[in-house]
Amino acid sequence: MPQSLLRYTNILSIVGDLIRVQVPNLTAGNARASYGDLAMIEQSGQVYSLAQIIKIDHEEVSLQVFAGTKGLSTDAAVCFLGEPMKATYSPNILGRIFNGAGEPIDGGPALEQDPKIEIDGPSVNPVRRVLASRMVRTNVPMIDVFNTLVESQKIPIFSVAGEPYNRFLARIAIQAEADVVVFAGMGLIFDDYHFFRTAFEEAGVSSRTVMFTNQASDPTVERLLTPDMALAVAEHFAVKESKKVLVLLTDMTSYADAMKEIGVAMDKIPANRGYMGDLYSQLAKRYEKACDYKGAGSVTILAVTTMPGNDVTHPVPDNTGYITEGQFYLHNGVIDPFGSLSRLKQMVQGKETRDDHAHIMNTMIRFYSDSVNAQQKQAMAFELSSYDLKAIRFGDKFKSRFMILDARMSLEEALDLCWQTLAECFEPEETLLKQSLLDKYWPGLAEAKEFAKADGEAGADKAAGAAAHTEA
């Protein structure tokens, strides 16, 4: 990094991980200080840490110190580097693990000579975006069948503390149909960091995975840089190499809490529940990186958003819902079909997938809704009809076959299992499905039709042969 010979030593204050330094004649352009640029903090003639400029007010510059300010004194000096934060981008980063400052932490070879790219760039021009039309297969039936994930979609996983959302996210990273998976963890405890790292290694997908991790013990400022680094790398894989990239973020509520903490330290006026007024725009800036690029690859974003107290009106999930295209609701250890929604699923269902996809999806959800109502009637000791008993039986099968997070099958296998489950619980006419679909997919009925057709053709051939023999 280029370094200036100028050192500024007039430290005005140190609050949390923020310092304020006075820079004389800043408005005259003598100092290379611009918003978002990096600076180097030195103490006792030694490099202490990198920092990032987050505010410029006349001759006062506020910086976030990456290593924190513990042990830093007002005798420190600040040197402006004149360039923004950058992330390493090259084929060598596949399989590597970086911290929130972009430094390798996996013990692998150094990447100092590899190309660097700027982070936190602008979103893609809407004119250059391609309409979403391709499915991202995850082999998770509650996603593939009922809330199909589409390339360039941005969608959160709404959950609460204690739910297995990280285990679920790791499964998607391992099973998803993607060329490159970019993972960004914010505020992870060590157990979660170790889990993701071990899961990717044991599944053999590390060669297509890039990890950026900010642990709970790391500086808060790095938590704000982690998703930007992941998204910058994902964009370049998609644009420069035409890769289908899946970005996994966890946890965006931790990211928003870091923004709140920094905002309070900067004496910003909080808005809803202590969060800053720009929460929506900051979240949208990251989510809008999801894009299907014309003539290139795509970036799809799947992000965990925890809801404190299971409160969907909390500022983070509330603002997220206005930005994203649906949500997956992880509740009681399963993906809740009623709280989940993919607003882009109709772009691929029946077009890229089988012709029965949308019909079987709606029918399965309708019967599951009836099973929930029947279970409520049973709990209140109401008399159950024969249909209620069928619905309860169907609901039990639906939960055990599709809703459990360990369920893994291809889309076609899941659709066939849907038909099998319907056939085990109901008669064909009870499903209200089109007769053409019943003839084609209903277990036993389709085989009977084929058998009857084959038998009829054989009978016709036999009759024709007998007629020919009579003429002879």
Automatic annotation (TrEMBL):
Keywords: Hydrolase, Ion transport, Transport. Its EC number is 3.6.3.14. It comes from the Bacteria. SUPFAM superfamilies: P-loop containing nucleoside triphosphate hydrolases. GO terms for molecular function: ATP binding; hydrolase activity. Residues 141-332 form the ATPase F1/V1/A1 complex alpha/beta subunit nucleotide-binding domain. Pfam families: ATP-synt_ab (PF00006), ATP-synt_VA_C (PF22919). One of its GO terms (biological process) is monoatomic ion transport. Residues 351-441 form the ATP synthase A/B type C-terminal domain. Gene3D superfamilies: 3.40.50.12240. Produces ATP from ADP in the presence of a proton gradient across the membrane. The V-type beta chain is a regulatory subunit. NCBIfam families: PRK02118.1, PRK04196.1. Belongs to the ATPase alpha/beta chains family. PANTHER family: V-TYPE PROTON ATPASE SUBUNIT B (PTHR43389:SF4). This is ATP synthase subunit B. It comes from Endozoicomonas numazuensis.
